[in-house]
Amino acid sequence: MTGTKSRPTAAFIGLGAIGAPIARHVADHTTFAVWNRTRSVATEFATEAGARDAESPASAATGADFLLTCLPTSAQVEEVLFGANGAAASLKPGAMVIDCTSGDPANSRKICDRLARSGIAFIDAPVSGGVSGAVAGKLTVMVGGDAAALERARPILETFAAKIVHCGPIGAGDAVKAVNNALLAVHVWSTAEGLASLAKLGVDPAVALDVINSSSGRSNASMNLFPERVLNRSFPRTFRLALLDKDVGIAAGIARNTGTPAPLLEETSRLFSEARSELGEEADHIEAVKVVERRAGTTIGGRIQ
Ligand code: NDP
Description:
By secondary structure, this protein is of the alpha/beta class. The chain folds into two domains: 4-169, NAD(P)-binding Rossmann-like Domain (Rossmann fold, 3-Layer(aba) Sandwich), CATH 3.40.50.720; 175-296, Orthogonal Bundle (N-(1-d-carboxylethyl)-l-norvaline Dehydrogenase, domain 2), CATH 1.10.1040. It has helices at residues 19-27, 39-49, 57-61, 74-82, 105-116, 130-136, 147-157, 172-200, 205-212, 220-230, 241-257, 263-279, 288-296, and strands at 9-13, 31-35, 52-53, 66-69, 96-99, 121-124, 127-128, 139-144, 161-168. The chain has a six-stranded parallel β-sheet with strand order 3-2-1-4-5-6, with helices on both faces. The protein has a three-stranded mixed β-sheet with strand order 7-8-9. α7 links the parallel β8 (139-144) and β9. The relative contact order is 0.10. Bound molecules: NADPH dihydro-nicotinamide-adenine-dinucleotide phosphate (NDP). NADPH dihydro-nicotinamide-adenine-dinucleotide phosphate is lined by residues 14-19, 36-38, 41, 70-72, 76, 79-80, 101-102, 127-128, 130-131, 238-240, 243. Residues 14-19, 36-38, 41, 70-72, 76, 79-80, 101-102, 127-128, 130-131, 238-240, 243 line the site of NADPH dihydro-nicotinamide-adenine-dinucleotide phosphate.
C-alpha cells in the first residue's frame, strides 16, 4: 500500500505476543486505532506507532474499514464484538472484520452470520510463523471466507504476511491452523518422550538429535525447538502452552465432529490439558517437555550444538 491519500482506516484489538507485531505492520500502512484490555499496553503502542488509543472496542471500530482481532480464543472475539461497548455496533456497513485469532470454526461461522446481518464482512485469518515471523512481516495467513472478501482484505494481510492461503469457507482457516498446531504438539511431546528414554539409556540427547535431524524422524520440533530451547534450558516464552492446548482441543473436536477416529489427537489433547494444569496459564508451550521429563525422572539437557 502506498500514499496517504488511499490509506484505509484500520482498528486493532489484542496487542499480545503476536498481535502487537502484526499491529505494528498494519499501523504503518493505515490510519490506525487500537484497543487493548490492559490500557497501558495500547497507550504505549499508540504513542510509538502514531495511532489512536481508543477507550473501548466500540470507539476503536468507529470509522474503520477493517477491524483486526488477535485474541486467545473465539470466545474473546465474541466478547469484544458483541459485549458491552462492543465493536460490532459501531462498525459501518461494508466494513470487514479480519480475525487473526486461532479460533474455533463453529464460533467463527456464528460470528460471521451475526455480523452479516449488519452488512459487515468477516474472514477467519489465523497465522503461523511465530513471534519472529510476525516481527519480520513474514507470517503465513490461512484464510476462511469467500474469495471476494479475501481479495478486499489482501492489501491489509500483505502488510504482515509472506504467504496467504485461501483454505475454504468460513472456519476453514481456523481448522487448518488447529490441525497444524496439533501436529506441533504431537512432535513436541513425542520428541520429548523419545529423547527422555534415550537419556535414561545413557545417550546424550544432543547426539540423538544430531542423528534424528539428518534422518526420517526429524520435525520442526527436533530441528529447531529442541536444539534452541530445550538443550540449553532457555524455554523462552513466545507462545503460551494454554493456547496450544486450546488448539489441540479444537483439532480433536474437529475429528470428533466429522466422525474421524483420531485416538492420537485425543490423547495429545489430554496430555496437553494435563501439562497446562500442572504448569499454569503463563508457561510456554515448549515447557510441556518439563512434564515429560518429570514423569520420566530425567532431563533432556546436553551439549548445545
Ligand atoms: P497473548 O496471550 O500474548 O495475548 C492475548 C491478547 O488478548 C492480549 O492483548 C490480551 O490483553 C487480550 N485478551 C485476553 N483476554 C481478553 C479478553 N477477555 N478481552 C479482551 N482482550 C483480551 O496471545 P498471543 O498474542 O500469543 O496469541 C493471540 C492469538 O494468536 C491466539 O489465538 C494464539 O493461539 C494465536 N497465535 C499465537 C502465536 C504465538 O507465537 N504467540 C503464533 C500463532 C498464533 P491483555 O494485554 O490485557 O492481557
